[in-house]
Write a structure and sequence with these properties.
3 domains, about 40% helix, transferase, six-stranded parallel beta sheet, 13 strands, 18 helices, alpha/beta
Amino acid sequence: MKSLKIAFVVGVFPAISETFIVNQIGALKEQGHQVKIFCTREVNKPPVINPLVTKYKLLKLSTEFTPNGFLKKGKGFLGKFKILLKSSGTKAFFPLLKTFKYLTSGNIDRTNQQFFKVYFKYYLVVHRFDVVHVHFADNAVHLLEQLKRFNGKLVVTFHGYDAHNYPMDFFKELHGLNHINYTVNTNYIKQKVIQLGFPENKIQVLPVGLDTSLFKPECKSKKDSFIILFVGRLIPLKAPLLAIKIVEQLIEITDKKITFYIVGEGDSFFECKTYIEQNSLTEYIHLLGSKSQVEVKKLMDSSDVFLFPGIVDDRGHCEGQGLVIQEAQAMQVPVIVSDVGGMKEGVLDGITGYVLPTKDIKAFVDKLLFLKNNSERRKEMGENGRAFVVKNYDSRFLSEKLVHIYQ
């Protein structure tokens, strides 16, 4: 297989909530492809670093991709001349060469500004990337000048955020670029993107995946308590408060040997904290804040059920895929989710977990109680879940499909 030179365009990198991008880049590098990461906002240095970021030295492969970022890294005459030579044989050569005309009047600052303005527009051409892959379609809109000039393979991936937050008119100019292929993580998001005016024949469903060799269970030890886990940003569409109310009702009808761990930060954190305290649930329900991937894996390894009762929020937004649902299944943890958005596409109802009507607290409580009282069923569902995820969501398998799209 030919090694491809791939430009990944993202907003902020690395983002704690976007481990799927790191997984995808890691899998491509394992296949021998060259990857460079371009950030339309900033290169981030979060307190919690994904192990794959360190393993593949991804921060060293990341650069700020903005006009100001280019000017801040301004090179002297020799540096500009090297860039000009590199552009030889591409359509960037003459536009770059023309900027040197300002030197005849001794206007060095004007030369710098014009040179790097043109260089920014033609960067992807100058450096001869085989593929440009843009994550989140709003980033593609912000880089229309670059994408219009690029003649190689172009892929834009829609996620839940961009498919929900922008009207059709926002993508008007993107519609005009006929050489772009689009990927989405679920059929739910595909329908959203079609509604935004993109042609169905240009859209392929490619879920975001995970490293199933990393997310694999260790030997589970016996526990006195039935452990339920929620992992995700604490925002309305992920319904952390609803999850608390579900577990509260379960506690009321059982022997109280229940522990509920909630991992994540977000706008709903203090609402959840207040509810837990006011309803005397601190003995059972624990807000843990953000955790590293390693810590999340350990929590999954000790959990009996993963609970994710997402809803459609007041803006009409809901979960596009929810990779954490596949992570839990890879760890052989049965999952219980609601039937909104794309979550249900990543669960085999009744086989790897349960897909239940949204906001139906009784239905969620009944299934939790059933699994609490049936350890053998939990074990069976867990084993089914891992087999399902290994077959359909492993990063290496999905990376091969992605490279096929690139080619």
